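Predict the 3D structure for this chain.
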Amino acid sequence: MTTATTTRTDTFILPIQRTPLDKLGDRLAGAVHEPTDPAYQALTTPWNLAVPMRPAAVIDAQTPQDVVQAVRFAGAHGLTVGVQATGHGAVSSLAGHLLVSTRGLDEVTVHPQERWARVGAGVKWSRLVPEVAAHGLAGVSGSVTDVGIIGYTTGGGVGPMARTHGINADKVRAIEVVTGDGEFRRVTPDSYPDLFFALRGGKGAAGIVTALEIDLVELPTFYGGSCFFDAADAPAVIRAWQDWSAELPFAGTTSIAIFQMPAMDGVPEPLAGRMTLSVRFLWTANAEDGERWFARIRKVARPVLDGVGVHPYPAIDGVHTDPIDPTPAHEDSTLLHTFDERAADALLGVAGPDAGSPQVLVEIRQLGGAYALDGRYPCAFDHRAAGYSLLAVGIDGVPGVQEHARRLISAMRPWDTGRVWPNFAPPHDAESARRAYTPATLARLADVTATYDPHRVMQAASYTRA
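Done. Predicted structure below.
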């Protein structure tokens, strides 16, 4: 008699026979784990603890061939496949019947003379950054190095150097991927140009990326960091930041964030248990010029904590000061065409010192510069014309946090483009896909997934068929 495992997801209850799963396990260097296995919880739990990922089984892939076997098994048995490495940006419905964990694909090879690196799908920026920094190099990494390089890049990759170096999707040289038809492919601008388009910005719709090769930039040190001001000074600092940032050359990238950090271990005393405004800054050119630029912000009010200065690139997390530990988070975001005085007033009215905001973070990033420029090769990352991004992060379960986030987005509607980055709101259905992509890009992604995933094995491709 064949036993079965039954697992609930957001959309289905699915029995999978143990005997076929055992046969899959026999083909792997890694292993198959079901919900009763001790490793299942560790491999399925994402960074965002508020998002349950409950596939029928998780594949602990140790080689690209393991990914091939998992995808082929799913196709042969009418199942869907999801993928997860670090679990940032997790969405429950994207787990699929079989969730492939790629954290075991941990290859890192650096080519310092040619200024590029090869990384496996399980590698975080926190591993690559110090390795390339030893050669005076840096990757176009994100606001926190704890995120995986592949997930960040397949969603576009907008980081604290975006106005200087653009998005990391435009730094990709080659991609190795297992597509929904179970084939392993090496993708470059010349081989499979349609996949090269879709895999840079299209998240996981076109397949499971097993390795990336990316260009690096020369940047042993930077001038920048985060400078915090008391909430009472937020209106004046934001006004000054608007005028100042409008004049910034491409060498400077900046953002502001209203923080409400709890009094707990790891939170600096000047920030604990109070509201502050952080001005983030990263300058890639001469440090003395960067210091002269930032002096205008320091003159507006007295900082309560000032971390802006010359730093080695491995200190990049000090710019955005994002949390690293897994958190039950609720996030809302959108892209803005402008952020003028009226927009600042609207933001402060909902999230400022007198608003009773429950959000831990409300962030405005200035875009433009190199971010707005198309890369050498077209990709599926849209909305480069946006002027700013808005992100609100609260603790899931805190009373009123979701309702407040909706009020915040509503208050910013006059400046809202209605669009969003794939990494801030991963596309998983027709509505989220329309926000993340233009109709033309959606059409191209649909063509690609129909070509390379004819049996609809990739769970993340579901939005291309809506």
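The chain is about 25% helix and 25% strand.
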